[in-house]
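Record type: monomer structure entry
Structure origin: computed from sequence
Chain ID: A
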Amino acid sequence: MVLLRVSRLHKMSKLPLYLGGSCARFTDVHLCGRFLGILRGAGLATLAARANIAAYYFFGIPIGFVLAFKLEWGLKGLWTGHIFALCLNSAINTWFVHK
């Protein structure tokens, strides 16, 4: 019984973890990390922190919970909300840097 549940969870979570991990790594390391460093160096750390809070707590987490539990996407929904927050945070920080 336990082996069946672990095997089902592994099959269910393999694709979103792979896709979510690769998208999150690219977005977080290459875009968010560099632009957050630029904003901190320019003395705009509070602006970057506010963008991060807005992206995750106001958009990413609620979208993830709605997709995961209301629409029954499960783990895919949670990862989709996280990826959406990363992309939104990257877009906001890119706009601030190029502004």
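Annotation 1: The chain has a mean pLDDT of 77.
Annotation 2: Residues 16-98 form one domain.
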